[in-house]
Each structure stands twice: as C-alpha cells, then as structure tokens.
Predict the 3D structure of the following.
Amino acid sequence: MINILSKEIYNKIAAGEVVDRPYSVVKELVENAIDAEATEITVEIEGGGKQCVRVTDNGKGISKEDLPRAYLPHATSKLKTADDLFAVATLGFRGEALASIAAVSRMKIVSKKAGESAYSLSSDGGVMGEVTEAAGADGTEVTVRDLFFNTPARLKFLKSDMQEEGEVSNMMARFMLSRPNVSFTYRINGKLKYRSFGDGLESALAAVYGKDTVEKCYEISADKHGIRIYGYLGNQNFSKANRSYQSLFVNGRYVVNQTVGAAVTNAYGAYLMKRQFPFFVLFLDVPAEIVDVNVHPNKADVRFADNQIIYGCVYSVVSAVLDGNSKALEYLVSAKPAVKAVQEEIPISSPELPKSTMPAKPVSKPVMNYEQAKKELSFDVSPVGGRTPAPRLFDDGPFTMKVASPAPQEKEKDAFEENRAALLEQEKKRQEKIDPATLSYKGELFRTYLIYEIGDDAYFIDQHAAHERLIYNRLVARTKTREALSQPMLLPFVLNVNAEEYAFLAKQLPFLRELGFEAEEFGGTSIKVSAVPLDLQGIDLDAFFGEVLATMESYRGIKLAELLKDKLASAACKAAVKGGEYLSDEEVKSLIREMDGDMGLRCPHGRPVAVKMKKSELEKLFKRIV
C-alpha cells in the first residue's frame, strides 16, 4: 500500500535536508536578510543556537498579506519560472528554508515594510497562529527557539553548545567577508563576538582575522576570459596548518569547490612546506549561465559548465602573483596606478575593489548565454581529474580566528575601532612617497642596508631588493613597448620530445616568438631554438623546457608567454647588485634617485625594499621612553 505523507511529515523530512543544525538556521535567515537588501544585520544565538537564534535586519520587510505565505513550503519571491533556475542571482531561491525551520522549532516573524505598520506571525512546530499588529522598525526580525523540540531523535545528535557556536561563528565570518558592504553584529549569549562596519573587504578581513593578517596578504583583482577573480591571497610565507582559512565565494555565494581548491593549491605548490595550506579569501564572478547552484539542498557546492576553464583562469592568476612575473603587476591592486590618498577620517576601501564588492543589491552582470561564454572562455586547458583533489573545507578541524575579546559591554566597540584605525594607518604607509632630495644618507650596514634619515624617521633600504625591482620594472616595460630583441646563439638548441609534448610546444611557438625566441619545428618531434630574448641571454634552455614539460598538465590553461615572462624576475635577480657588495657614493645616489622616493616598493618575489623605523621606536629599545 502506498501512503500519501501528511504535510507535517514531509515538512520534517525537508527540514532534515535543509536544516541539520543551528548554523543552517543562521545561514538561511541571514541569506534571506541579504536578499532583502539589508545593510545592517544582527545575529544573536543562545545555547549554541539550540535555545534561540534571532536575526534582525533593516531590509525591505514582508507585507501583512505575505506573512502567512512565508511559512509555506516552496513559497519564494525569487523565482517565477523554471528558466530562472539557470540564472540565479540571489542566495535563496527554493522557498524551503522558513517552512523547514518552522516545522522543527517555535518561530516568530515580526516584519515591517517602509510606510506600513509592523505585523507578527508565530508558528509552533509548523502550526501557524494569527497575524497580529506589532511594534517594530523597518525590516524583519526572525526568532527561532527550541530547535528540534519536536524531533528528539535529531536533537540528541547535535554537538555541544561550544561546538555548535563554532560552526555558527564560521558561517558568520564567511558572511562578513562575502558582503563587506553590509554591517554585521554577531553576539553569543549576549556577548559580542564579531562586528563589521560595512566599509569594505579589507576592514571585514581585519574584523574576522585581525589586522595582522591583512599585512601578510596580496590583494588581487583580475578580469580573465570573462571571469572576474578578486580578493586576498596569503603571501609565500603565510600558510596555515589546515584548510579552514580558505574561503571561496562564487557570485557572492560561499561554496566549497574542488576545481578552484586544486587550482589554488597547485599554484602554491612550490612555496608551501608539507602539511601547510594556503590562506585565501577569493571571489569569482562568472556568467550565471555557466554555473549551477542548484546542486545540493544546502547550496554548499556549485557545478561549473567547464571545470577546465575555471581551473586554468584561477591557476594562472594566482601563480602569476606568487611567482612575481609580469602579469602580477596587472593583478595586484597595490601595483596598479595610485589613486587619490584616503583622508584619515574616511573609512578606507580598496580603490580597485570598491565597496560594491558583491553589494547587497545584485550586480547586473553582462548578459551571456552558455555558448557565448564558452566561446569567450575557450582556450586549451587540461583535465583536473585526480591531479590534486581539494578536501572538504571542514575536514581539518574548527575554523579558528583571531578576534578581539572586549571586556565590559560598553567598551566592546573599542577593539573593532582599533582594527579600523590600524588599517587607516596601514593605507597611509602604502601610499607614502618621499621627495628623495629631503632624505639624508647616513651610511650602510653590513654592505647590504642603506640608511636614510628624514625628520624623526629612519629608512633601511635593502640594496639588492631595490635594484632588483628597478631592473625588473625596466625589463617589463621593454616587453610592453618594443619589438622583441633577440640574441642569436652560436649553436642552435634542439629539443627532442615525445608526441604529446611536441603537440603542446608546437602550439606555443607564436608566443615564444613574441618574446624574442627564434623557435621552429625541426622535423619529427623536435623543436629548434636559434635565438633567445636579449634580456634572457643566460637562460638554461634545457632546464627551462624540462621544467615546463614536467608540469605540462598544469600549464595547459596558461599562455606560455605569461610563463616565460616570469624569467624576467630571475634575470633581474641575477643582474642586481648583491647584498655584501660595496656601493660607491654615486651608485647610492643613483639607486635612491631611481626609486623616486617610493618606500612601498617590493622586489619581484614580494620582499619589502624599505623598512621604516621611528625615532620613538628606537628610544623605546634603549628605555629612554616607556
């Protein structure tokens, strides 16, 4: 006999898929608040979220007529036709969340649309009460109490309050990062855990991880083959012991995706020690038509129409930044043309990554169907299958974050203001440029560091790093503004490879010639090189091509021209004056003159060129001041 399940039973079944623990409740309610265009969201939990979850926002609100519909399964304002599923621009869209949560809790919604009165509607285990007039500000407040009170089997499988709090905190951290223009306040048992001010991604990053983390990251912004990739990457020396410090957002939605994870991990491969993992907060904006978000009930994963293209784009951008090749200058926000200095009283935000970084209001993306997108994105990439699978994000333990722990409630904002102030000071330092004529040369240390004084500040300049950066800049400029110059070889270099390697290299010959290599097919599966770029005269071609072909699968998604430009950094390093070499007075003057007073320079490998020390810092070391 086939039974027709009652509404009470199928709602509880749906709740089991959508709402499996307190963090799921928080996730669904906050996503609704974001979709309602809220700019201020407050989340409060008690007892690990099992006793109470309350989410308050200043969004558009729900009308009196729509309040009862909000509790119904498959009731949504975000979809109208089946075609809408293939261009989802909101975080929620199935209409399952509120009905599922209401079925396993005691729930109350108080909502007010602008210009209307506030109304309230409660539900007890899915049984609705009556709509009544209430007091409330514009927006919505949803309170969920006694989660799983009517499903004791589910309740006993919940973790301890502290563990559940940890998972909710993880989710809140990701929301703060994904919506940096929204102000979030998050409290646990009445105590403030996080607060962000909605004034940009850098500020949100500091609120979640602490201001020190920002200083150890590269800020990137790249548009590649119709895909926008932006966010923060930990530098080559900044890694973590697990993957819980990795956040990926696809079209504003936090997801775990093995394709992107593998691309980032492989790009960091040469820089990470064993059992260390990269830190990143990465955003991908892709045409809605080439990504499927309707893969899993909790929307924690997405499916791309072409994983190979996504892999190639992410890998090439991240590896360019880490390796310091010429493309890094295009992708690094700090390496792009300077903008007007930020005034101290104005909250900072990156000039290249404005506050509209996934704003509350959906961005209108270019209209592009899948065939157009594939044509735009099409280039030769290799399968990812089985190369470096990316484990699930939470496999390696809790998401531990550095946060301020305020003492008295009335002072709880101080720690967050301190992070904010520190970021302002850091931004000023990044933009600091000094007139070289005002610097007074005081000598050198260890024949490596040049010492300059100006007012109450001292600057220590690494002569090798400074010279390396200046040479690198000249080499890069030459590749962009002139026809490639070649240096003929006394004896041609012949590279013998197998058929697969030959097919790969033969396709790249135009790019080799673009850089100044005279390379041609030489019969069978051989390539002949008879000249090299003038800037790379000392290159070891055997070692170079061996390195390229050894990792051919990873490089299929990257133009070889971009890979070869990485050799400019090596050439600059070899040509630069070394630490320990003596510089004459004229050479010292020439170096500082070429730097043009830019104390924010970094060598192509990411090391700082100059370090600043204030007089007061030195006096503290000698206990002259406390």
In short: Residues 77-89, 337-370, 377-410 have pLDDT under 50 and may be disordered. The two ends are 84 Å apart (CA to CA). Residues 463-481 form the longest helix (19 residues). The CA atoms of residues 258 and 391 lie 7 Å apart.
